[in-house]
Automatic annotation (TrEMBL):
It comes from the Bacteria. It comes from Sphingomonas hylomeconis. InterPro entries: AB_hydrolase_fold, DUF3089. Keywords: Signal. This is DUF3089 domain-containing protein. Residues 1-18 form the signal peptide.
Amino acid sequence: MKLLVTALATSLAVPAAAQVPGPAPAPDYTQDASWLCRPDRADACASNQDVTVIRADGKRKIEKLRPDPQISFDCFYVYPTVSFDPTPNSDMNAGPEEQGVASAQAARFRQHCRVFAPLYRQVTLTALRTAMTGATVTMDRELPYADVKAAWADYLARDNKGRGVVLIGHSQGSGILKRLIAEQIENTPVQRRIVSAMLLGTNVAVPAGQDVGGDFKRMPLCRKDGQFGCIVSYVTFRADSPPPANSRFGKVPGAGQVAACTNPAALAGGKAVTDAILGAKSAGTGSAAMGPWSKDGAPVTTGFVKVPGLISAECVSQGGFDYLAVTVNADPADPRTDTIVGDVAIGPAILKDWGLHLIDMSVAMGDLVELADRQATEWRGISWTKKKR
């Protein structure tokens, strides 16, 4: 799983001279090769999702993903910055890094929805690292948006057929979807098809104390079960390691504006145990390796692990930041691990300003998947009622 320091995608300040104006022609999304994931084919979103569940008493079982017999809504996923391509913008070939992140972040949603994920010419890690040195980089920041915009138009024309759709993104992907919603979806007939938008690992601006009116003028934050057509967004930090003053996550520019935080495990607010589904070996490159999941050192043979009750989360506002504070409910008396990985690190040094960006989705993956399904159920009920009138 190649979840790199994806925060760079949304956070790195690049000099204006490094920008290349104007988007190039979009890829041909009528061709299956332009898609990382499409339904009913063997691709990254059809990957093995077996989970080893380790209970507090140390007992284990393996859970297999069993898709619903009837899938009635879609998910449109845009992946974060993962490309190792040597060029400033990536090619349209699905490398192991794109496949790995789709397996980790999108494949589990196929339990309830058809998953569509376009390949796109994202700004690469190569370009971002070069820009960090102060060198001029001819990256084109319009290409990623233009590509995803074209893929979305193709999806609507060929595949949607009036179905509800959940938008899912992380980091660079969330930033692209944020713009797509503002420019192409809000205040158009297509908005009625949006079940929800899960924009994780990016800052979504809202007026303090309100749920709509910042980056989005019509789509509010999700605040209760039964609500749909709304936004789920948060950035994660450990509860005992809040954002330092230099963090770019959890705050937005503009007087009276704050970064949105919606806890998928407790939409109405408060602290709740999350249904975390974590990588068995690590949080990816940029993170330390995960040690034994239980104190007997027993190996884990699946790609993912679930540790019921170990992780809790709560949206907090502290020190000028709004974020999802993650607590590891360590119990030295039980046989399970008392820690998880997910911090961004360079060697032994943890970059506290990045928080738990590498596992933004993982800390509440099960909650996100089930929330999407509940929202789609409510959307279908309202949509069907309107059709019959």
